[in-house]
Amino acid sequence: MPVLAETWLRKATQVSDGQHSEAALLFQQIRTKRLYEPLTTGLPIEVKFEEYGRGIFAKEDFSGGQMVWREVPIISAQTSISLKAPACSQCARSLLTAIDYFGDDVLRSMKPAERRVVAKYWPQVSIIECPKCQREKYCSEDCLKAAWYQHHQVLCPKKNKAAVELYDFCDKGELCTEGYWSAPFSPMSVARIWAAVIADVRRAVKQAREDGADTDEPTVEMWAHAKAPYRRFIAYGKAGHAEWAHKMVDLMNRVFNNFPDGINYKIDNREFEGRYYQVACNCQSFSDPLTPYRRFLSRMKVDSNSKHVVPYMASIGEPKEAVFGGLFALHACLNHSCDNDVEILDCDVGGFPGIGVRARRKIAAGQELFSTYIDTRTPRAERRAWLFRAYNFWCQCRRCQFEGDGPEECSHCGIKPEQGKYFLGCANCKRAWYCTPKCQKIAWKKGHKRICKTKHSDVVSSVEEPVREQIRKLADLFYKEMPKHLSKPSESK
């Protein structure tokens, strides 16, 4: 029924030449309900399409600090700059071993009791490589099979010779290479979308043959069905990026447009930019919140001998995290506010790394939830300029309304001071400037009071207690019992 309704409403919009706004809005509302209602079943949120677009709304009241929902990505890839940190290529679980962290030399230098602490409390890590290419590592047979089913059957360098060049480029860990790439997320994030589409079409063709079809040619419907999960992710960006990254476009086309079975995906400039901006606009970074290192810190506390391992850890420091970029179906529906009422955290979701969306303050039922796309500590002018370039909107949130751009203009009335003079700023937040105490009082009552007292928010944080704090507690425990003639090692940077 919803699909039939969408068809007629789309026709109504076309017949009216886009002038019938009610039909267009109703079409989007029905489509949004069809796409997202199955994803929000059992959750205290709903996705609605209103006058200014899609958004997530609370179905019940939330208190500050309450977890609203948790989510795993529909597709993800490890960032190129963190590839040296071992992790499961499919689920993002950390594969850090004790040898990876301490190193053979340090482990050999430890006393037997210290080595026993490491052996006893460092979690067992299972590492399984792709048996064909040995270029992907997984935490389990299940993840290996899931990756092969979803995308790796298309991207495996053993089966796809053109993919060798793509893997080699990603292994370099370069964020900006003229002609190829310019983004913090990995090219593999985009490649896995095309690979997943091809893999889905292959399965559909195989099923059709088993059902009696007399051709191996995929239908338009098969391609549409395979692409459907990724239509949820809105893309916006400046045209012409594909021309700048022309070498990567050519490489991707060689990777996905060369299969002997004829199920190929042509990657031209338009297709490349569409998928690139889908990932650029919706990609959320996340990491394993329960790494072997963190679990080791938690477990070793119960052993009195653990205090002797702490100096080694203090010298080595925290291990580099494996950071992934993922597309999350519900998270992508969150709109932005510099005065965001929810925050995104690394989170364990049913035993797998993912994200959690947590309320920062009280949220009433029916209220739209807002995340932030940027570190809100950034000055207002820079925030708004970046958001306009990246997402094509001029932020009008409460924080942007009641902060200013500098002492050269009153943040309330907009008047400018005499040449060579400047207005005084808010003594508390130092982010708003006023020409008179009257303007300051008016702005305070209208909304600056709320903004002035609201803490700024990072784009991402961890749901776990910070690792640095845990290791400091262990270090303090050790130094209290340490003989006075031994010196305290310097704190690692």
UniProtKB/TrEMBL annotation:
Coiled coil feature spans: none
Transmembrane segments: none
SUPFAM superfamilies membership: HIT/MYND zinc finger-like, SET domain
GO terms of biological process kind: methylation; negative regulation of gene expression, epigenetic
MF terms in GO: histone H4K20 methyltransferase activity; zinc ion binding
Sequence ranges assigned to domain SET in this UniProt record: 43-374
Keywords: Metal-binding, Methyltransferase, S-adenosyl-L-methionine, Transferase, Zinc, Zinc-finger
Protein name, UniProt field: Potential protein lysine methyltransferase SET5-like
Domain MYND-type: 88-156, 410-452
Organism the protein comes from: Lingula anatina (Brachiopod)
Taxonomy, superkingdom: Eukaryota
